[in-house]
Amino acid sequence: MSRKLILSILILSFAFLELLAVRQEQINTVHEMAQLHHAIDRGNDVINALSIKIEIACSPSRIQQSVAFTERIDELAD
């Protein structure tokens, strides 16, 4: 009887250790996913900032200022 009890306890202990290992792998995977999501968010923030800079640089008023400046330089060079 005691052998069966000891064997049952050992088998259950092993099973619980395996479950703990699986759970730890899940936690590690979720942590990695969170880090990747943060990196993606930072990348998206950089992309949005660059998009705004591009829109400002290509706006009609900015282009008009550049053309006017270039025309003034050409007039002074002549």
Summarize the structure in words.
The protein is mostly helical and 78 residues long. It has one domain (2-77). The protein is built from two helices and no strands. The longest helix is centred in the middle third of the chain and has 56 residues, at 2-57. The termini are far apart. The mean pLDDT is 91.
Q: What is the mean predicted local confidence, pLDDT?
A: 91
Total number of β-strand segments?
A: 0
Q: What is the end-to-end distance? A: 110 Å
Order of helices and strands: HH
- Overall morphology: rod-shaped
Whole-number count of domains: 1
Number of helical stretches of at least 4 residues: 2
Query: What share of the residues does DSSP label as strand, in percent?
Result: under 5%
Strand-pairing-aware structural class: mainly alpha
Largest sheet: none
Radius of gyration, rounded?
33 Å
List the uncertain runs: none
- Report the helical percentage: over 70%
